[in-house]
């Protein structure tokens, strides 16, 4: 493949499991996506827990993820704890394949139902979740604090696998 071919037809995004070795990168991505980002130590602790599954999104030949999703499995249910995509990769359709692959992995591990919470008003995330079949099951008013100090509701959603 020529250099021009690689530019015109870049390698397909890769979605691979990530562990504690990626904690610092995940913390940086998370901090860029949320008003209250989690620390590297937070990610190291989470990724070291039994039942926690994390998948990273890799573009091109890079060894650093540009996005990730992280879930916790308990018995036959899982909660998607967080999903984040780095600013430079947002809005390019990466969330859907990342989430689809992650949901496939959860199903492979015996998960029958997946839960998540999402900020009411986060239109891109809500659209992605609904396209994957998640449905609204509840609402928590004032759950998330925004960077300006205001509070907004969280919608709780679920998907039967």
From TrEMBL:
Domain of life: Bacteria
Gene3D superfamilies: 3.40.630.30
Species, as recorded: Microvirga terrae
Keyword Lyase annotated: no
CDD domains for this protein: NAT_SF
One function term, GO molecular function aspect: acyltransferase activity
Keyword list, A-Z: Acyltransferase, Transferase
Start and end residues of each N-acetyltransferase domain: 13-161
Protein's name in the database: GNAT family N-acetyltransferase
PANTHER family listed in its UniProt record: ACETYLTRANSFERASE, N-ACETYLTRANSFERASE DOMAIN-CONTAINING PROTEIN
E.C. designation(s): 2.3.1.-
Presence of keyword GTP-binding: no
């Amino acid at each position: 493949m020529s250099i021009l071919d690689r530019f015109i037809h870049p390698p397909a995004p890769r979605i691979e499991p990530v562990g504690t070795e990626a904690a610092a990168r995940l913390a940086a991505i998370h901090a860029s996506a949320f008003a209250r980002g989690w620390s590297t130590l937070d990610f190291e602790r989470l990724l070291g827990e039994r039942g926690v599954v994390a998948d990273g999104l890799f573009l091109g030949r890079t060894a650093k993820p540009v996005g990730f999703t992280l879930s916790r499995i308990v018995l036959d249910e899982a909660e998607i704890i967080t999903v984040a995509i780095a600013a430079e990769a947002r809005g390019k359709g990466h969330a859907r394949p990342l989430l689809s692959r992650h949901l496939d992995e959860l199903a492979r591990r015996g998960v029958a139902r997946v839960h998540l919470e999402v900020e009411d008003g986060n239109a891109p995330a809500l659209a992605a979740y609904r396209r994957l079949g998640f449905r609204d099951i509840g609402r928590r008013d004032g759950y998330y604090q925004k960077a300006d100090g205001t509070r907004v509701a969280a919608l709780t959603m679920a998907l039967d696998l």
